[in-house]
Design goal:
The structure is a single chain. With 130 residues, the protein is mainly α. It has five helices and two strands. Strands 1-2 form a two-stranded antiparallel ribbon. Helix 1 packs across helix 5, helix 2 packs across helix 4 and helix 4 packs across helix 5. It starts with a helix and ends with a helix.
Length: 130
């Protein structure tokens, strides 16, 4: 998995950069701030993936929780969890950067996180085919 680290970082950073620059509700001081926020989000998600892949911290917890759920609900719950992590990272970036990166209301953060997640899934599917 560590050989895929740069690829994962790109896959998880590019969608954030696209959404940050594309959505009119996100106010960014300049492109360098947008690149920094995208790389930070991508790096933190990659770090979480690496830790989970190498040490399996969450696997016992998820095995206990997911055994009680019907199989049809597992993927949507994981998707909502992914969107929540992305939204939290965007919110933290906005709070840390102050007026250099502003998102607006909570609804805007959720929409941005959903778009980022959809683009990440699309990129992952494209890259996994090659």
């Amino acid at each position: 998995m560590s050989s895929m680290l740069p690829v994962n970082l790109l896959i998880l950073s590019i969608p954030a950069f696209i959404v940050i620059c594309w959505l009119p509700t996100m106010q960014v001081a300049n492109r360098r701030i947008a690149v920094g926020v995208a790389l930070a989000c991508g790096f933190l998600k990659t770090l979480v993936m690496e830790i989970e892949f190498n040490y399996n911290f969450l696997k016992p917890l998820f095995n206990e929780i997911l055994t009680f759920l019907p199989p049809m609900l597992i993927n949507p719950i994981i998707g909502v969890f992914h969107i929540a992590i992305t939204a939290f990272l965007l919110w933290m970036a906005a709070k840390l950067l102050g007026n250099r990166f502003e998102i607006g209301r909570f609804f805007n953060i959720v929409i941005a996180a959903m778009l980022i997640s959809v683009i990440e899934i699309g990129l992952m599917q494209i890259i996994l085919r090659f």
